[in-house]
Write a structure and sequence with these properties.
The protein is mainly α. It is about 75% helix and about 5% strand. The protein has a 3-stranded mixed sheet. Helix 3 packs antiparallel against helix 8 (about 240-270).
Length: about 325
């Protein structure tokens, strides 16, 4: 890496870093091109897959239910998160590292954290929706009205951006005066705090305190909801009805397991002995892998979504055949 490309901005007395240098993946040019191609394909799949879910839920009348409304909101989050990370990661890959302004770095961190927190809240709301549908089916239409669903989702977005804003402001006020090199492919909180010259005690304290409303409470709601669901389903005498009830929850449980599993691996498990390359790979799990598999889980395991997808694919195939047929006749 050329040292001249790394700029450290210093001011006398009031020293401040104006930009950071993100190393990304320090590999050979051939491997960087391969990674760029791979991530480009993955990002296109993420965008198209989640956009397809949003479109189907919006246009298909049989999908105008609270559960699918929440799934469409999850898809919006799964588009926002990689869009915040991946495009600039392409720039870093092509240039083998690139500078990022301080404001741009903080903004990226803000959107990234808010998207993750929103998903925490939304998964809790979705578990409550399944609880009401299975444990209180007679009151479901009264409790989970369209207005209530919109309010719950709006609250998830507002709480996510509000809670995250608290420690983003505190982080932005830290003094960054020394090295500005971040050995990562995006501005994550941990490597950013490692560069701070001032004391990060209050930032770490805020993160610890905010874990209660952001992670612990939503996780508790999910556990309690599914505890009641399991108890209620096991009381159903018909095995067919039990299987159908569990199948409606399987997709959501799979998404919950993947989401919390990746977060646990990155932020909870001890990082001692973990290489920087391994940390980057683990970060790819929740920035790229999770948004990619979520629409697959809900589409492949859900007949209500698979039907309109098959219908769209059939119509596209029919249109393609008609176009080919017309061109064939035109050549004749």
């Amino acid at each position: 890496m050329n040292v001249k490309n790394i700029e450290i901005h210093e001011e006398t007395n009031k020293t401040g870093v104006l930009e950071f240098y993100l190393l990304g993946f320090q590999v050979s040019q051939g491997l960087r091109i391969s990674l760029f191609s791979l991530f480009l394909v993955v990002y296109c799949l993420i965008f198209c897959g989640n956009l397809l879910i949003i479109t189907l839920v919006s246009t298909s009348k049989n999908l105008h239910t609270p559960m699918y409304f929440f799934i469409s909101q999850l898809s919006i989050s799964d588009i926002v998160l990689p869009t915040d990370i991946v495009p600039y990661m392409f720039h870093i890959l092509l240039n083998n590292g690139e500078t990022f302004t301080f404001i741009g770095c903080i903004t990226q961190l803000y959107v990234f954290c808010a998207s993750e927190v929103f998903e925490c809240f939304l998964l809790a709301v979705m578990s409550y929706d399944r609880y009401v549908a299975i444990c209180n089916p007679l009151h479901y239409t009264y409790i989970m009205t369209n207005g209530h669903c919109v309010i719950l989702t709006t609250m998830c977005w507002l709480f996510a951006f509000s809670f995250v804003l608290i420690y983003i402001v505190t982080t932005a006020k830290l003094n960054f005066c020394g090295p500005n090199i971040i050995d990562h492919f995006f501005c994550d909180l941990v490597p950013l705090l490692e560069l701070a010259c001032s004391d990060t005690f209050f930032v770490n304290l805020e993160v610890s305190l905010l874990c209660v409303p952001i992670i612990i409470i939503p996780a508790t709601i999910i556990v309690i909801s599914y505890t009641y669901i399991v108890v209620s389903v096991l009381r159903i005498p018909s095995s067919t009805v039990r299987q159908k009830a569990f199948s409606t929850c399987s997709s959501h449980l799979t998404v919950v397991a993947i989401f919390y599993g990746t977060i646990f691996c990155v932020y909870v498990l001890p990082s001692q002995g973990r290489t920087l390359t391994m940390s980057k790979i683990l970060s790819l799990l929740y920035t790229v892998f999770t948004p990619l598999v979520n629409p697959m889980i809900y589409s492949l395991r859900n007949e209500d979504i698979k039907k309109p997808i098959r219908k769209i694919l059939y119509q596209l195939a029919q249109n393609f055949i008609v176009i080919i047929h017309k061109r064939g006749i035109g050549h004749l």
